[in-house]
Amino acid sequence: MTFYSAEVTVTPADPSMTYFCNVLPRAEFDAFPSEQELIDAQIAQITGAAELNAMSFEEFCRSMGLLFTGTQSFVTAEELAGDTEYVEYVFGLDYSGKATSELVSASFRTKPEPTVQPSSMTLGLEVVDLTDVSARLQVTPSTADEYYYCFFVLRENLDALGEEGIINLCLDDLNEHISSSDYATVVAEQCHKGNYTFSYAEFAANTEYVGFAFGVGQHGLRAAATTRLFTTEPFMLKDAAGGDDPIRIEVVSWGIENAQIKFIPTSEAVPYRCELTKLADFAGLSDEEILAKDMEKLWNDYGDYYSMMLLNESFTMTRYMPLDPDTEYIAFAYGLSDTEFKATTKLCKVVLRTPAAEGSSVGARTLGLLRR
Q1: Dihedral (CA of 237, 243, 248, 249) sign
Q2: How far apart are CA 203 and CA 298, in angstroms?
Q3: Which residues does 267 contact at the CB level (< 8 Å), separation at least 6?
Q4: Which long-range contacts (CB under 8 A, 24 or more apart) does 42-46 make?
Q5: Could you report the per-residue pLDDT of 342-369, keeping only the tens digit for each?
Q6: Any residues with CB less than 8 A from the CB of 256 and at least 6 apart, and which?
Q7: Residue 39: CB partners within 8 Å, gap ≥ 6?
Q8: CA end-to-end span of the chain, whole Å?
């Protein structure tokens, strides 16, 4: 028994019989005038659901795994309320929709819900490597063995929502992912321990932002905040940088597991094609030969549909699959007409080598924080 779940074991007298098992709060259970009326209501509910899905009673029960045989142990629910009385009930039910036994029940009370244990961890934050398109949030925690969540937020959203609102919005996002996975997996992917630098490139010009972080711990099946919200001073992007290339390639972050590259075209390079691949794929080739080889591959792969792969505005490429360690890669882009298969600019490129080893991750983020 926990404050949100209970493990139940059901042993039928006849090991071959099929039966239905469910849980209700004590108040809802007691609202039925008799146990037979609860059985009838439960069968009617299953029958209605089967008809709604254009299935027979048996088909629906088998597809949903509603009936059991033999001794079964399972967690009856994982979203119960704390310190609340529930009734687990079971009755024989066959696949024709007929009750085959009386109802048997057992009462239990969940444990009181514990408070989230606050942490004394503090988080030092600094915005570094600020450009006209990107920024990095450098996080230095006071301890290296606790998780924290970090991101950026529009200053006006922080002012409107407040610290508690920002924390709750991020926790809602984490817990939505946890509901279809599990706490350990999601937090390991989207939160961090120890020193970490988070890179981001989807900012708007002439707009104030704030970097933030807060501690994250487990509360039942969900994530909860363990510290207050730590924030940076508000900041804005620098003035736009010029350049000679028709497509600017900005390396936002670079590593085995956190490669993020932004491609920024000028008007003469729209539409354009961009890619990140191993430099060995173009070993010994000139820029003109790289462009020609890539166009040949693009045509072989997509033919007349190549235009679907073209971009018309700035694009941040994020690689979620790990890159090979200690390997040279080339990020490149060039203008490519969408009306005739012809390059409209020279090849723009950046050559990068991945580190020998790395242990970081990139997770999903609450993008609503960066929208008005």
Answers
A1: negative
A2: 31
A3: none
A4: 42/91, 43/93, 43/97, 43/99, 46/20, 46/97
A5: 999 999 999 999 998 765 444 456 767 8
A6: 322, 323, 324, 325, 354, 355, 357, 358
A7: 91, 99, 103
A8: 44
